[in-house]
Amino acid sequence: MIDDLRGHLEQCCFEADYARAEDGLRARLASTAADDAWLQGLVAGVAAPDEECARAARARFDAAAMPLGGLGLLQEDVQRLAAALGTRDVDISARCLVVFLADNGVVAQGVSQSGQEVTAIVANNLLALSTSSCRMAACAHAPVIPVDVGMATRVRDGRLRGRAAVRGTRDITRGPALTRAQALLAVREGYIAASSCAAAGARLLAAGEMGIGNTTTTAALACVLAGIAPDEAVGRGAGLDAAGLERKRLAVARSLEVNDPCARDVVGSIAAVGGCDIAAMCGFYLGAASCGVPVVLDGVISCVAALCAQRLCPQAAGYMLASHVSREPAARVLLDQLGLRAPIAAGMHLGEGTGAMAVLPLLDAAVEVYRGCITFEQSGMDAYKVLE
After folding, report:
1. Which residues contact 27 (CB under 8 A, 6 or more apart)?
2. Partner of 124 at 20 to 30 A CA spacing, among 12, 62, 205, 372?
């Protein structure tokens, strides 16, 4: 009971700090257009992670009384955290999960078991902190901020942050999902969310999503950016049968034929076959990098948004950590394109940030070893030598 009360107070405090930061940032951006010039300015402001801090973190691990590289990927992730944060004193106790909500017109093609009304239902469940991601976030001591960037049905609750770029996208099998201007607005919403989290004190961020049909738009974007075929990119999503899987593959193939997106134009590709949630997560990752805050990726939808961010700003990838390998077939391809390896391979495909929340306790444990493990010198042991 006491822990539940403490968690509730922490959530409310973070929500209040986030709201103040978001309101202030919106006021400053009120006269600034969300256009290509704004995006280029954001990208130009991203500094490279501090590799000297990464080297110092590795040296500290090498001095710890344990086998060299004993924590594997977790040890490498702590080194990435040090570089991203620009400090040897890694502290990720202040963190936040932002869940972006949006709807996708491609559901008209029978690519999902559920209709768009489910997105609004889940939005209310997120506000009640009763979803799977919320319960996992509570275990990981991460406040949850739901953000509406394009739900078809508006949920009128002051706790729901964000501004919808559009009330649901168009069907990508019949033309572009969004205009370029709408896509850029959604990118800016993600930037605002990340910047507001950082201003509220978060030193580690994660993004989740909820939007019926978004594994279809993800598959289409994966085909464009990673150069793979629909058969390699399309999975069963929330649980399609064989007939539904075939409809989904045909919808992706049709969207690529109708829109002919160009991989060199990332924003144009998002507008053509993506969605507001992917655009917002792309902006979120760029915003986090611009603030010098590392981000933990979630599943396949998160990864395609991260690849969009990386293509726009290669240095942004240095602020990213993988959490898990989604069951969706494009997941490994996207992680490879990002140059990331995930510590968890559990067949997860839930979304909403659950994979990111699952890895946080592992990262916390690795940071504890980094910060407090006895050294070879302190224990009177001979240090292991680095063998080439």
Report:
1. none
2. 205
The strand pairing partners of 321, in sequence order, are 296
Q: What DSSP assignment string belongs to 275-286?
A: -HHHHHHHHHHH
Residue 210 in contact with residue 299, Cβ under 8 Å?
A: no
Q: In the chain, pLDDT over 70 holds for what percent of residues?
A: 96
Q: How many CA atoms lie within 13 A of 130 on its CB side?
A: 7
- Mean pLDDT along residues 323-345: 96
**CB distance 53 to 86 below 8 Å:** yes
CB atoms within 10 A of CB 87: 16
Query: What is Dmax (Cα atoms) for the chain?
Result: 70
pLDDT beyond 80 at 387: no
Burial class (CB in 10 A: 0-12, 13-18, 19+), 379: exposed
Query: Would you please indicate which residues are annotated as catalytic (active-site) residues?
Result: 352
**Nearest-5° Cα angle at 122, 5 to 208:** 80
Mean pLDDT of 142-167: 94
Q: Are 141 and 109 in contact (CB under 8 A)?
A: no
Give the angle subtended at the CA of 300 by the CAs of 70 and 72, to the nearest 5°.
Answer: 5
Residue with tokens 């609750």: 157
**CA 364 → CA 145, 198, 218, 307, distances in Å?**
21, 19, 30, 26
Please state, rounded to an integer, the average pLDDT across all residues of the chain. 93
Please tell me whether residue 156 adopts helix, strand or coil conformation. Answer: coil
Tokens, residue 377: 């010198």
3-17, 97-111, 294-308: least confidently modelled range: 3-17
